[in-house]
Design brief:
By secondary structure, this protein is an all-alpha fold. Helix content is about 85%, strand content about 0%. It is built from 4 helices and no strands. The radius of gyration is 20 Å and the shape is elongated. The termini are close together. The N terminus is likely disordered.
Length: about 170
């Protein structure tokens, strides 16, 4: 359907839901791409390592909040569209649920633990303990990177499946 001044009134709730669905996916996956490949590397290139870590640490809670909000919006709108179309897209629902779970786990479990270890590193004076905490932080950072890449790959697959079914 083409939209012009004459048929703009034909925009229905399902059109708005589809728009919210697509917007949530674009913002979510776009934020992952931007933060992972532009913002974080740029911050670490421009600032001393410790300062860059502090800046990125300050951004992370907002970064995960974007993921939380967008994932819930995408799930709710997908559920609405599935009910409206009387069709259950099992693959898309499964991908989106997995992406959402990983996002919440990454932010609430891994991210929370990384923040507390980082604070502990700053407070500890003993070199051996500090080094042990740094090793633990590096392990959590690696886990976070893997989880982030996983959400990005799954999100790209999800976007492809979504784009595949769009009729223009």
């Amino acid at each position: 359907m083409r939209y012009n001044v004459k048929n703009i009134g034909s925009i229905t709730m399902i059109h708005i839901i589809r728009f919210i669905h697509l917007s949530s996916l674009v913002v979510w996956i776009g934020s992952i791409v931007f933060f992972s490949f532009i913002a974080a590397p740029g911050i670490f290139k421009a600032l001393p390592r410790e300062t860059a870590g502090d800046v990125v640490g300050e951004i992370f809670p907002k970064y995960w909040l974007i993921g939380y909000i967008c994932s819930i919006a995408a799930l709710l709108t997908l559920a609405y569209m599935a009910a409206y179309e009387r069709m259950i897209p099992v693959m898309k629902i499964s991908l989106l649920v997995l992406m959402t779970l990983i996002t919440f786990y990454s932010g609430l479990a891994v991210g929370s633990k990384a923040r507390s270890i980082k604070a502990e590193i700053k407070a500890v004076e003993e070199p051996a303990k500090k080094e042990s905490l740094r090793t633990e932080f590096k392990s959590l950072h690696f886990k976070s990177v893997i989880l982030n890449i996983t959400v990005l790959i799954l999100g790209t697959i999800f976007l492809f499946l979504t784009a595949y079914n769009i009729r223009v």
